[in-house]
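Q: How do we represent a protein-ligand complex in a form that can be generated token by token?
A: Start from the inputs.
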Amino acid sequence: MNPALRIRLLMELRRCGVSDTRVLAAIETVPRDLFVAEPFSDQAWDNAALPIGCGQTISQPLVVGLMTQALEITSRCKVLEVGTGSGYQTAVLCHLCRRVYTLERHRPLLAEAEARLRGLRLTNVVAMHGDGAKGWAAQAPFDRILLTASAAELPQGLLDQLAVGGVLVAPVDLPSGGQQVVRVRRSEAGFATEPLFPVRFVPLVSGLPPADAP
Ligand code: SAH
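Then emit the structure tokens for the protein with S-adenosyl-L-homocysteine bound:
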């Protein structure tokens, strides 16, 4: 992969507000070209979302950068990701925290993502097929939760799985039709939500695709 394309992307992310050097280093390290299908590999280092099959997309690098930065991850964190997709965001998280738990409702995407993560020898990740709107109760609580699919409301089941002192970052649908990323902090006093920036994500769909149902 042409290193100039990588540097161009990193500079664009910095210009657009990604300033956390750990996040920038993780994005620089993860070979995005391995997470996109062959016809798109020449666009892998563009700041663009790309199709990954099953009607889903790999997120735009800027959105990955800004959302990961908003999570304020430390190396001790146990992180839940909802919407594995290509596994790209998962790989970025793996470089920043202790352990990642990731859920995907499309089996074929999950299988491909797992193969990529194994190929990169990222061993601090567990991936599971399931409805991420329900979270991963057996592994809760999580220090950080990241949703990469958008819903009108944050599922209460997920909020319940956030540790006290934890942070959740997710896109939510706005009544006006757009979406925005919000950050939710949980303290002893309850949940505090702040809006961060506008985005466009695929929807968070409850339940499993018919072909994937158990
Ligand atoms: N983070 C991914 C982005 C994938 S797009 C990447 O970097 O490639 C969002 C993903 O969320 C899609 O793969 C979609 O299938 C998945 N998704 C949507 N609703 C879901 C749900 N309820 N449970 C689990 N995964 C879900």
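Residues 104 and 110 are 6 Å apart (CA to CA). Strands lie at 50-53, 56-58, 78-82, 99-104, 125-129, 142-147, 162-173, 179-187, 190-199.
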